[in-house]
Specification:
The chain is α+β, with helices and mostly antiparallel strands. 42% of the residues lie in helices and 26% in strands. The chain contains eight helices and eight strands. It has an eight-stranded antiparallel β-barrel with strand order 1-3-2-8-5-7-6-4, surrounded by six helices. The chain starts with a helix and ends in a 6-residue tail after the last strand. 34% of the residues are buried.
């Protein structure tokens, strides 16, 4: 019960801190930290996936961009049996987090394009369900960084869970103050975003995405990271012991129309 209250209180405090921090950053001329919404659309078949990809490319992404949500990433799992799509929405303001769905339903161009693409019905829905997480971008990386648009590019999504809030914050510190982010950049683990989860499953966690030109580059970068002397020293520091209790690792490919 204590852990549940700790998670809720920690998430609420982080959200309020993030909103207040946005106002402070704007006033001081510093980069504002994006709120990152990461969605997972569960789909029943490859045909449904292709239909939804067309919908995102021709209707949803242009509409999201019109209300200031950009860039938008749409990704397929590289696991053949997983038909789902993951969508990353980069919010520049908490306002679009709250108003996004309402504003889409007021967008005539979006409604017309959706009607033409999605012949959705009760008995044959376009998607089964959506799961969503809301992340606050790290202060050391306040905005999504769009990778090179190589056709062969690979995205790697990783979630680091911690067994309590204190250890979660220590892992965030390891990236921001300990130098882990700098090591990533140096060895070719190219970050797209790093965010602290405010709302969603598997709390507390931090979630990040890396980009590579292809699978060979992905493997080479991780090998370089594991052999890096600075990383060897950093992970041995006692203050960073036991900061991660579980890791989820997902390889993704960009869908047609993805801006990431």
């Amino acid at each position: 019960m204590m852990q549940r209250r700790e998670f809720v209180a920690g998430s609420a405090a982080a959200l309020m801190s993030g909103v207040a921090g946005q106002a402070s950053a704007a006033a001081e001329g510093r980069p504002m930290r994006q709120l990152l919404e990461l969605r997972h659309y569960a789909l029943a078949s490859n045909a449904k996936r292709e239909l939804l990809e067309k919908f995102f490319a021709e209707a949803a992404i242009p509409a999201w961009n019109r209300i200031g949500i950009q860039p938008v990433g749409v990704f397929r799992s590289m696991e053949a049996e997983d038909f789902g799509l993951r969508v990353l929405l980069a919010h520049g303001s908490p306002l679009t987090v709250v108003t996004e769905s309402t504003r889409l339903m007021e967008d005539a161009a979006y409604l017309e394009a959706s009607k033409a693409i999605l012949p959705d019905s009760f008995d044959d829905p376009a998607y089964q369900r959506i799961e969503s997480s809301l992340l606050l971008a790290f202060s050391a990386m306040p905005k999504v960084e769009v990778p090179t648009q190589a056709a062969s590019r690979v995205l790697q999504l990783r979630v680091y869970e911690s067994h309590n809030l204190a250890m979660h914050l220590k892992k965030v510190e390891m990236f921001e103050g300990g130098g882990e982010l700098e090591i990533f950049r140096r060895v070719g683990l190219n970050p797209v975003f790093l965010g602290r989860a405010l709302i969603g499953p598997k709390l507390p966690n931090l979630t990040y995405m890396l980009a590579f030109d292809d699978m060979d580059a992905q493997k080479a970068a991780w090998e370089a990271f594991q052999k890096d002397a600075q990383w060897t020293e950093l992970k041995a520091r006692p203050e960073y012991a036991n900061t991660v209790s579980n890791i989820t690792n997902i390889l993704l490919a960009p869908s047609p129309g993805s801006q990431i």
